[in-house]
Amino acid sequence: MTSTNHIRGVDDLGKDGILEILELSNHFLEVSNRRIPKVPALRGKTVASLFFEDSTRTRLSFEKAAKRLSADVMNFSVSSSSVKKGESLRDTIETISSMGAEAIVVRHKSVGVPWIITEWTDASIVNAGDGAHEHPTQSLADCYTITRQLGSVEGKRIVIVGDIKHSRVARSNVKAFSALGAKVALVAPPTLLPSSIDNWPVDVIEDFDVAIKEADVLYLLRMQLERQEESLVPSLREYTNFYGLTLDRSQKLQKSSVIMHPGPMNRGVEITGDVPDLPNALITNQVGNGVIVRMAILYHLLGSGVALSGLHSEGEEDG
Fold it and tell me: Has this prediction a pTM greater than 0.85?
């Protein structure tokens, strides 16, 4: 069962929905390359950003995406809001909704919040990360990055390395990559694998040096120490020795293979030295594509009735 009103998780889209977002993204790539990269597609619409956890890339890319579509943007800051006075999540959502928000982009430390708040508002909900559960818009940006670089996700061997247990990006990516026909493998210390891994459509490879030779896409995750309640590896140095992408290890990749990371990077832990600066590292591409894909996401949710073929940049005249 898919939902077109919300993007709370990858399952709200399914394969067809993912492909639709990727196709829309191609259009907004063209828009972003214009002299004036702004169109009136969502003029009169309001997008609210509610980030209860810190964010740089996701928050700023949604803001940029909404503004390029000419939407009004409301940015909610927990540190200066009534949440600090004890306001409940429900009251916050209802307040934002009463101000006319048609879409609410939410990040929260608690799993399931994007699903819960749909009961309190008619606005479209976009999950910008709920605990260690899902981060669907990052996975859509990653699918688009792979498609642009390698032509397709289908049939690619994608190796995800690192702190799988605490990674919402990993969970969404496994779903999205698998839906598009990729072969996904995980590499991590046993202590950093989820207990429910048997239900995931993945292979688990113990030896990073074996897995790296098979990868079309090597996807690195950071060690999420803020979500770990106990020490799950003997030391970060030992983790790097076994699971870090060093310059030497990167030479084992196939010439056509690419390196990805959702950020922020912990240089010297999961990735070392000048690896992010290698020509096959797509980390900055992921950030740029994130704006384009989030334009497609907002248009997908709010842009009904606005024909893509009729969009012009702000300030352009109809000829």
Answer: yes
